[in-house]
Amino acid sequence: MNIKKNEFEILSYIEREGGQKLPQRKIADDTSLSLGMVNKSLAELGEMGLVRQTDKKELQITKLGMEALEPYRVKRAVIIAAGFGSRMVPITLNTPKPLVRVHGKMIIETLLDAIVEAGIPEIVVVRGYLWEQFDSLLHKYPQIRFVYNPLFNESNNISSAYLAKDLLQNAYVCEADLLLSNPRLIRKYEYSSNYLGMFKEYTDDWCFEVKRGKIRQLMVGGRDCYHMYGISYWDQKDGAQLCHDLEETFQMPGGKEKYWDEVALRVFSKNYAVDVRPCFEGDIVEIDTFNELKQIDPVYNM
User: Fold this and answer.
1) What pLDDT digit, counting tens, does each position of 80-106 carry?
2) N or C: which end of the chain has fewer CB within 10 A?
3) Residue range 106-134: average pLDDT?
4) Is residue 302 scored above 80 in pLDDT?
């Protein structure tokens, strides 16, 4: 059964939050859809038999609704965690950046906990620098499968994506050094390929130019754009295309120096139509330098 994107957003939201009273205003706020669109989509979902309202006015997804969501289930998460983290020296001289603790918890744990909570069955971590230390994660996350990147010190992060290129269909690709405060950014279902971004009036960092919800250009610095965060999702079609385009980019002159994101959003952008998925202040934090780490966690000032 084909469902429209707005219907998908509401249906997947009810799957996660169902079994309780969900006022339309709350659904609208939590899904960033208009109240009118929520009203219309709920009526359509009800007519199709995908959701129902109990005698207590609680919204529930039906068995037919679960079947409608199944084609959109995320199969795996691929986490890129091979780099050195030079701007985090001295802390990264002995510890890979993803394993650095912030308020007592490793940075990568905030991402892994969200993946587990979402019920995503496969977790692949691409590791390189001080790779043995990542084994400690297996005590809490025994389902992790590791991929070793021997090129982490001589190429950019495209080498990590290249080594995992056969695993990108129906998959998240996540940078391992993001401090995730909102675990609901990682979802059990995704409708189409998308990249997380936060709207900014100005940024001097990596960002997207967006038109009608689609990423049109990848830039460094811009106005009225979306600040880029390293969590993306690739559907079956785009994941297969990425496998091919990563191979071609990696082998071209200068290809090993590129960031992996440039493959779909710059080098072969004509092959993709990627949505921006908005996130908001406080949802996620990038810790790029040791000074930023000290500002977030005072223990490093000692």
Assistant:
1) 999 988 889 999 999 999 999 999 999
2) C
3) 97
4) no
From the candidate CATH numbers 1.10.10.10, 1.20.140.10, 3.90.76.10, 2.10.109.10, the one assigned to the domain spanning 5-71? 1.10.10.10
- pTM beyond 0.85: the answer is yes
**Is the confidence at residue 19, as pLDDT, over 80?**
no
Q: Is the dihedral of CA 119, 232, 5, 276 positive or negative?
A: positive
Per-residue model confidence (pLDDT) at position 228: 96
Q: What is the 3-state secondary structure (H, E, C) of the chain?
A: CCCCHHHHHHHHHHHHHCCECCCHHHHHHHHCCCHHHHHHHHHHHHHCCCEEECCCCCEEECHHHHHHHHHHECCEEEEEECCCCHHHCCHHHCCCHHHCEECCEEHHHHHHHHHHHCCCCEEEEEECCCHHHHHHHHHCCCCEEEEECCCCCCCCCHHHHHHCHHHCCCEEEEECCEEECCHHHCCCECCCCEEEEEEEEEEEEEEEEEECCEEEEEEEEEEEEEEEEEEEEECHHHHHHHHHHHHHHHHCCCHHHCCCHHHHHHHCHHHCCCEEEECCCCCEEECCCHHHHHHHCHHHHC
C-alpha to C-alpha distance for 236 and 50, rounded to whole angstroms:
24
Chain-centre distance for alpha carbon 169:
14
| pLDDT (tens digit per residue) in 203-223 | 999 999 999 999 999 999 999
CATH architecture of 73-301: Alpha-Beta Complex (3.90)
What share of the chain has pLDDT > 90, as a percent?
89
Give the residue-averaged pLDDT of 254-270.
96
Exposure class string for 105-126: b at 16+ Cβ within 10 A, else e: ebbbbbbbbbbbebebeebbbb
